[in-house]
Structure formats: structure tokens, C-alpha cells
Amino acid sequence: PHCMTMAQMAHGLTGVMVIRETEDPGFDADQVVNLRDFRLDDAGAFLPYYTARGAARGGTHGNVLTANWLQAPVYDHPAGGLVRLRVVNTDTTRIYKLHLSTAQSLIIAWDGHPVAVELPLPSAKEPLLVGPGQRVDFAVRMPAGEGQTAELLAELPGQPTRTMARLRSVGADLARDLRELKPLPANPVARPDLANGEVHDFVFGWTPEGGPPNDGYCGSMGYSFWSINRTPWAGDAAKGTGPLAVLERGKSYVLRLRNESPNLHPIHLHGLAFIPIRSNLRKLPPLVTDTMLLLKDEVAEIALVADNPGDWAFHCHVIEHQKTGLAGYIRVV
Question: Computed from CA positions of residues 193, 197, 200, 205, in that sequence, does the dihedral angle turn out positive or negative?
Fold first, then answer.
């Protein structure tokens, strides 16, 4: 939900919609894992879903981590079979550092789009960062032996590696091979003309000198900590709040995203798909996506074709940041 967002999501109102390919890629099974954490007391009752201190920093983490609302659930799939593991982070705050226990796997899709380049498998030393609102699909070859498992693992600061979910082999060995899978068909996304892309700058950071909380429609947290281009979002019903940028339909654009805070921000754009093209801190694979996880002090450029007219929300998917100012919209005319 995008009304009363923080309260409703913190209490569990999130889900996953799967849109399958017209032609079956060749998997034997499909498994969705929805990652969420919750703030609960010893009796299992909800604690306050955020703190002002957390909202002004990296966000308020929960103390109970779940996959599909369960702790370390186990899912049975054919031994030696090929499973499409769809991992979705619908948390309000937590940026997961993920990897699998098996090397018999591939990353095949990112944020709903097929991956056209080979990505390195994440590991405990170099886990995959998956921020709120982001999705990653793995192709996993199940172990051959009955009862053996392939595990989705998370690295947490100062804690042992945590198992988020287990895939358990059952039945006779199907002896499948990852090379048997058909490539996922590309989504119909227009490719930007980088040579002629008009540049727009966006600065993400704290609210200068504080600021009034938003107008309260669809929920106010009572604080204004964050801003885009040094202006906090005034609220969903505030009058006179214009777009962050106006893009002309059909034209190519480069959006330069500057993180002026020490916190990470998964910046999500509704209605349009884009391609990360460069960063001052790392090499960015050319993935089609709708969310850019900005690192501390990172300046990243993303490119897109403004091919979908309308007013499109542009916000941080750490919901505490979104609801305390780090939100706005882009207009395509």
C-alpha cells in the first residue's frame, strides 16, 4: 500500500505478484520467498513500528526476520530438479546481504527483468545487496540426494550467517542441468540514446534546517528528516507541490543521482524502467531495473526513455525515509 504506508507495511501488508513468461523456460518448480522483518516484544505483540532516531538514520530494523512470514521455512522440491527461486524484499527498512549455499545456481532476473549478462554468484564475503522493493530470481539446481538442502542465507552485522529459507530435495534424482534452461525472453523496454540524453540532477540527503512534517493525508510520522534536491516532500495532498522534473515523452534522459548522506537509499521510480550506466564507486552491470540502491556518498547515473506518460512517484523505498521527506514525482508529458 502507498497510503498509511509505514504502518500497514510494518504490520505485514505486502505480497508478491508473479507474471509468468508465455513460454515455459523449463523449470521443474517455482518458489517465492518474501523477506520481511518485524518489531515484536517477548509476547509476540507489535512494538512501535519505527523510531525517530531510526528514521533519521538508516531506518528502524525489526528483531524477527522472516521468509514468507515464517522463520527459516523449509520447502520441498524435486531432487536434482531446477527451481526458479524468486526472492523479494518487501521490508520497510532492511537491506539484505544474500547468497546461496550452493554453487549450482545462476542469477537470471533482477527487479522483474531478465539478466542479459553473466553476474558473479554472491558469497559470504561478497553477498548480494537487495534493498527494500528489490527482487532477484535465481535458477537453482537442487541437490541430488533425498533430504539435502539448498539454502538462502543472509549476512547480518556481528551475527553468524542466518538461514532465511531452505529448499529440500525429495524423490528420485531428476539429474537436470542448468544449461537445459531456455533464456528468459527480454521485456519490451526501450533503450535510451545515451549520446543525446538530457541530464537531470537529483540530490538525496537530509532536510536542510529541518522542516515541517507532511500534511498527514495517508499518514504522517510527524517528522521531516529527508529531502530530494534539498526540499522535503510536503505530503500526498499538499497543494502546489510540483514535479521534480518534467520529461518529454519518447525522449532519452540521464538522471544523475547523488547521495549526500552516509545511509543507503533504494531509489525507486514508478512507471518507467531504467538502466544504470555509471557510478563514482563501482562498476554497474547494465541491468534493466526500476530501483537503484545508492551507496554511501555514491553518485550514480541511470538512463531511460520517457515512454510512459503520467506523474510517477520517485522515492526511497526505506519507508521511514519516504514518509519523512525523501519522496517526490517525475512528470512525463
Answer: positive
CATH architecture type of domain 5-180: Sandwich (2.60)
Residue with cell 527480454: 186
Predicted confidence at residue 210, as pLDDT, reads 64
Tens of pLDDT, residue by residue over 217-238, are 777 788 889 999 999 988 777 7
**Nearest CA-CA partner of 215 in 325, 315, 311, 320:** 325
pLDDT tens figures, 300-323: 999 999 999 999 999 999 999 999
By the 8 A CB rule, do 194 and 303 touch?
A: yes
| Per-residue model confidence (pLDDT) at position 223 | 87
The C-alpha atoms of residue 30 and residue 80 are separated, in whole angstroms, by 14
CATH number of 194-332: 2.60.40.420
Cβ burial, residue 17 (10 Å; 0-12/13-18/19+): exposed
Sign of the C-alpha dihedral computed for residues 44, 47, 49 and 54 taken in this order: negative
CATH 2.60.40.420 domain locations along the chain: 5-180, 194-332
**Backbone phi, then psi, for 98, in 5-degree steps?**
-115, 150
- Residues pairing with 99 in the sheet: 153
Residues of the chain with pLDDT under 50: none
pLDDT of residue 161: 96
Opening angle at CA 116, ends 110 and 122, nearest 5: 55
Beta strands 135-141 and 226-228: pairing type? unpaired
E-strand ranges in 23-174 read 29-38, 64-67, 74-78, 82-89, 96-100, 105-110, 113-114, 128-130, 135-141, 149-154, 162-170
User: Which 3 state secondary structure label does DSSP give 164?
Assistant: strand
